């Protein structure tokens, strides 16, 4: 059964700061991979998995509140239907039914997810919410035909041991994320990532049917590029600087910052590949990196602030208190205005796209 | 796919007025039927349904926010495990896994449901939330082994046609529920109940596997007893009187009351039996009425007020506005104090208990 883990869901509800309204950066990456997903499903999924197949089960792991999850899932359904029509038109007595399992932590805002999806009369699948950490089992053995996860596994199950411990060589000082400036910190984060990603793959291996596909999309560093050289790393460091400014103003304290580090790690691509290859339950159908589709569009400061706010609010609130969120992101907006990001100067993260087939 | 329907969920959250804290009347009936459920499952469920059975799927239709649903489901799991141990001990290579589908309307408070259930490490089933009206399909064909529903099907999918229409012979005047005083109103409610209960049974017939069990527990009138002769009917009528008092005080208006009638119907037992028998997809393993276990305990006014408030809040709020709820139930408490219910004088509803087996 699922393991417990620290959980800081995306901003709930649907107001101006919610994840629903501030997840278009992630959406762009999903859009960019849509063609690949379509081609991959058409080529790889075997609908003869079970001659009595009447329900096709899809799971999205780390679905948050939408709307990206609905799009990813619809894309998969469209392709399966197309393939099913081609292959089974004459044999099928009953139409294939779809059941979609939307998974996220138990404190995810499932109410908003359920209330914002299309009404059942306009939906061609039975919708289901699955509360639980995807770093453990959340679904029965052999029950899923296609699994999907987008922009999720950079969230670790917990802050790595010792990075918030002032006495440890792996202490992250007043940095708030793994910017790769401190070797022992990087190592601690990497160990945690490998453990978590390994657990993710192990759990999915049990949940997927033989022949089932697992699609994994996320963001990582190109090999050899440290986080502190990327514009994304720079924004995280700037958030840290804002917190330090707030400490000087007495809104928070240096001690609080020194005991804070995000449970988040952007691996280098070879690290992702390593974990996948280490698990022997899948064949790798596709594993590549692509540029983020918005790489050529200089992002506005507002867009960056809103995007970071939507995924950091819960965790900032928990550690620094309710009042800190507005102050922090106002500060961030100001700093970005004073020192705009020169996108040509900074290196960029890339999007990795992986399709696995359960042996 | 599921049909749309009017939906007024039980009071959300877990504060003093929530359904979670005010559903012990319903719990008592479920407790009272527990032994029957256990015996019925042991006797009737066939675990050889499928020789490769590795996941046993249970659904609770109209689960609300808990905790009654967790108890009902655990009771079922305990019995299936017992039976499985007895029958399959030597044959099974892998332990049976359980997946439980908690169904309710999309505006049910699933967040509270997920956050109040035992942590996954202490739970022996995979938990899933299913948003949708149970008067239509909410799950794939042939996917459920045992279905359960407790205290749900007296909620109609909508207020019957014409009972709020002043020009119709089926107009319910200033009564707020079907108290059986007006023949045309009773007829309209009965037609709606038969349609809804029929749709419920039809949908479950598709969702259950052949050999699967459907357990239905609810409250009804003994044959020949009209609602207005029961203490429950009297409480509903008293709620209506309170609204009329509020109209006199200008807090609401008579027009508003005349256009209000609850989408709720307590059938006579023979009406329930009629609908079940009309659907030919099930064999009837058990169909009987039992006294409500609290029938011999005079209920306190506080208990009655809180119980009615927990299931009426949403609908009262929607029709009469936010402010009306407190006022209405304060009035009800006062009226019950001035005119305590003489439980010996009033007739009583009964609990019906039905176990069906999918042919």
UniProtKB/TrEMBL annotation, chains A, B:
<keyword id="KW-0460">Magnesium</keyword>
<dbReference type="GO" id="GO:0032259">
    <property type="term" value="P:methylation"/>
</dbReference>
<dbReference type="GO" id="GO:0008168">
    <property type="term" value="F:methyltransferase activity"/>
</dbReference>
<dbReference type="GO" id="GO:0046872">
    <property type="term" value="F:metal ion binding"/>
</dbReference>
<protein>
    <submittedName>
        <fullName>(thale cress) hypothetical protein</fullName>
    </submittedName>
</protein>
<keyword id="KW-0489">Methyltransferase</keyword>
<dbReference type="InterPro" id="IPR005299">
    <property type="entry name" value="MeTrfase_7"/>
</dbReference>
<keyword id="KW-0949">S-adenosyl-L-methionine</keyword>
<keyword id="KW-0479">Metal-binding</keyword>
<keyword id="KW-0808">Transferase</keyword>
<dbReference type="Pfam" id="PF03492">
    <property type="entry name" value="Methyltransf_7"/>
</dbReference>
<dbReference type="InterPro" id="IPR042086">
    <property type="entry name" value="MeTrfase_capping"/>
</dbReference>
<dbReference type="InterPro" id="IPR029063">
    <property type="entry name" value="SAM-dependent_MTases_sf"/>
</dbReference>
């Amino acid at each position: 059964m699922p393991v417990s883990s620290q959980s800081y869901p995306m901003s709930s509800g649907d107001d101006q700061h919610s994840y629903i309204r501030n997840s278009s950066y992630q959406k762009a990456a999903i859009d960019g991979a849509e063609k690949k997903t379509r081609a991959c499903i058409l080529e790889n999924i075997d609908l003869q998995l079970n001659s009595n197949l009447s329900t096709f089960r899809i799971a999205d792991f780390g679905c948050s509140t939408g709307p990206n999850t609905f799009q990813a899932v619809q894309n998969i359904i469209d392709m399966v239907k197309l393939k099913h029509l081609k292959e089974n038109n004459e044999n099928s007595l009953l139409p294939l039914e779809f059941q979609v399992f939307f998974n996220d932590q138990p404190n995810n805002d499932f109410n908003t997810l359920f209330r914002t999806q299309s009404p059942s009369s306009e939906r061609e699948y039975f919708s289901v919410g699955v509360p639980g950490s995807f770093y453990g089992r959340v679904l029965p053995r052999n029950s899923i035909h296609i699994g999907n996860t987008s922009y999720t596994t950079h969230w670790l199950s917990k802050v790595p041991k010792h990075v918030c411990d002032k006495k440890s060589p792996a202490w992250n000082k007043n940095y708030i994320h793994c910017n790769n400036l401190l070797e022992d910190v990087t190592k601690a984060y990497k160990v945690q990532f490998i453990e978590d990603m390994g657990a993710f793959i192990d759990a999915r291996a049990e949940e997927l049917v033989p022949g089932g596909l697992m699609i994994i999309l996320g963001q990582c560093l190109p090999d050899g590029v440290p986080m502190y050289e990327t514009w994304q790393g720079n924004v995280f460091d700037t958030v840290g600087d804002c917190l330090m400014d707030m400490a000087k103003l007495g809104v928070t304290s240096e001690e609080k910052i020194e005991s804070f580090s995000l449970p988040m790690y952007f691996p280098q691509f070879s690290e992702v590949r390593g974990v996948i290859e280490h698990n022997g339950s899948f064949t790798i159908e596709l594993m590549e990196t692509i540029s983020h589709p918005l790489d050529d569009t200089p992002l506005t400061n507002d867009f960056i602030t809103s995007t970071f706010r939507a995924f950091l609010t819960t965790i900032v609130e928990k550690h620094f208190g309710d009042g800190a969120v507005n102050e922090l992101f106002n500060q961030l907006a100001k700093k970005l205005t004073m020192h705009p990001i020169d996108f040509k100067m900074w290196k960029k993260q890339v999007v990795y796209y992986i399709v696995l087939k359960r042996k």
